[in-house]
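Saturday, quiet lab. Running sequence design on the C-alpha cells for the scaffold JK sent over.
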C-alpha cells in the first residue's frame, strides 16, 4: 500500500517520518510541486508558486518560505530582495501529495507587483477587472 493511501486510512494523530513522506511526493517532471501560500489568520490565498525538494526542505528547516523560480532556475527566498517575507506557520500536503499548502505570516505584499496577493484579476461578466492596487 502506498504512503498516501496509508495516510488516507490513518487515524487522527497517526504520523509518518518526514523523510519517508518527502521521498513519496510525486514531484512533476521538472522535480517541482505546486505550493499555495495562504495567510494563516484570515485564510486569504496569497499566491501560487513552485517548490523543489531543496526549497521545501529549506522552508521547513528555516521557517522562512523559499520557492523555486522557474524563470531564473534557482531558489527564490521570498522577500530576499523586496523585504516582503513569508514566515511559515504550518505546511500541509494534500491527500495525494502533489500540492503543498503553506500557512504563512505575510510581511508586506505577497505579489511582485506590490499588491497584497497575486489574485487581483477578477473574472466578472465576461471581463477581467483589476480589484486591488499596489500597497
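Result came back. Writing it out in full:
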Amino acid at each position: 500500500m502506498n504512503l498516501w493511501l496509508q495516510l488516507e486510512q490513518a487515524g487522527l494523530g497517526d504520523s509518518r517520518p518526514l523523510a519517508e513522506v518527502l521521498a513519496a511526493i510525486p514531484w512533476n517532471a521538472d522535480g517541482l510541486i505546486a505550493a499555495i501560500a495562504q495567510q494563516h489568520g484570515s485564510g486569504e490565498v496569497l499566491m501560487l508558486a513552485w517548490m523543489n525538494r531543496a526549497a521545501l526542505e529549506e522552508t521547513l528547516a528555516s521557517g522562512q518560505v523559499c520557492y523555486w523560480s522557474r524563470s531564473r532556475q534557482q531558489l527564490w527566498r521570498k522577500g530576499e530582495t523586496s523585504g516582503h517575507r513569508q514566515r511559515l506557520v504550518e505546511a500541509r500536503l494534500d491527500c495525494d501529495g502533489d500540492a503543498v499548502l503553506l500557512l504563512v505570516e505575510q510581511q508586506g505584499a505577497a505579489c511582485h507587483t506590490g499588491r497584497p496577493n497575486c489574485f487581483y484579476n477578477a473574472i466578472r461578466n465576461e471581463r477581467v477587472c483589476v480589484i486591488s492596487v499596489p500597497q
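Notes for JK: Residues 3-130 form a domain with the Ubiquitin-like (UB roll) fold (CATH 3.10.20.810). The chain has a mean pLDDT of 94. Ask whether to fix the surface positions before the next round.
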